[in-house]
Write a structure and sequence with these properties.
alpha/beta; DHBP synthase; seven-stranded mixed beta sheet; 7 helices
Length: 220
């Protein structure tokens, strides 16, 4: 991991220093936008309650505002403060969290920025399997967590890839070395009667289907 230095006036903090993680959390709480590691790829995010910060993430990524952002949390208790998981969601959470699975659920906390959920009644949530971002979340509780790339470009696995990319306009980087998976999370919509596959990613769909079938069989 790189030392905490400024490169082109951009602060780069280290995941192996608790104080530097806390500094990144302070940036988030003050309305900033940061780049951070997850278990899948590097993410870019901010507080999901700050409209202006969320708007900045859209601008930085060049992302369509009709596309909602997922929200990351450190534990199931915090997840269930903002969404309704239901039986299938709790089953999938018990099998695959922390890990590379994003669940799209009915939202319970309407204080979350409408920009995050693109005006919808659902939101994607995930507990990442990465000690650094979990440490960050213990300070700021929730984070918008979308891939740290300009929309349509390759998702980065390291800080060097981020700094050499065209992504610009964020406030700081939290350096955790190369990510483990290198592939975006799998996304499953569980807000309806039957789960719907949105995107296959880090978790194979065969594993998802097996866990869902097991849960559905209990009710038959």
């Amino acid at each position: 991991m790189e030392r905490s230095v400024k490169r082109e006036t951009l602060p780069i903090y280290r995941c192996n220093d608790r104080n530097e993680i806390a500094n990144c959390a302070s940036i988030v709480r003050c309305g900033g936008v940061i780049v951070f590691p997850t278990d899948t790829v590097y993410g870019i995010g901010c507080s999901p309650y700050n409209d202006r910060a969320v708007e900045r993430v859209f601008q930085i990524k060049g992302r369509n505002r009709a596309c909602p952002f997922p929200v990351l949390a450190a534990n199931l208790h915090d997840i269930e403060k903002i969404v309704s998981l239901g039986k299938i969601g709790r089953k999938l959470a018990s099998v695959f969290w922390p890990g590379g699975l994003t669940l799209v659920c009915k939202i319970e906390n309407c204080d979350i920025s409408k920009n995050v959920r693109a005006g919808q009644s659902t939101i994607g949530v995930r507990i990442p399997n990465n000690e650094c971002v979990i440490g960050l979340l213990k300070y700021c509780r929730y984070l918008v967590g979308t891939s740290a790339n300009v929309s349509g470009m390759t998702s980065p696995r390291s800080v060097s890839e981020i700094l050499s990319s065209s992504l610009r306009g964020f406030d700081a980087v939290l350096d955790g070395g190369s990510t483990k998976e290198g592939q975006e999370s799998t996304i499953i919509d569980i807000s309806r009667d039957f789960p719907q596959i949105i995107r296959e990613g880090a978790i194979p769909l065969t594993q998802i289907k097996s866990a869902v079938s097991e849960e559905l069989s209990k009710d038959s």
